[in-house]
Amino acid sequence: MKTRMFIALTALTGAGLAAALPAGAQQAQQRTREIIVYGNDPCPRATDDSVVVCARRPEKDRYRLPEALRPSGPPQLSQSWQVRSKQLATIGQTGPGTCSGVGPGGNIGCGLKEIQQGVAERNEQEAADTAPGQ
After folding, report:
1. What's this model's pTM, rounded to 2 decimal places?
2. How many domains in the chain?
3. Which residues constitute the signal peptide according to the record (predicted)?
4. What is the domain range of residue 107?
């Protein structure tokens, strides 16, 4: 008698699990889509087999690099190529105003070069001392 009751309970439990599986399978088939929308763009509608989660960002961020890919650190590390190329443009020049020992008047530019270097260092120090966004 006890074995028959055990078999009956096992059958009922198995039937309950079998009925529960299709519902679990349905939930497993439903997928979630995460989308970023900008400005007043509409959020796509959800369908029967998917859930859509929208994150709204301002319009000004539409064409910006994602935050994970943006350069970080002090501004000196993210210096533009234009500024870097200015330093390379004067390499090898001779003559007046170049701070070179070659050619007539080559040493005239040394004072100007020191002044420009001092101004650049001061600007870099001020940029490093100010908080971002000011």
Report:
1. 0.35
2. 2
3. 1-25
4. 79-129
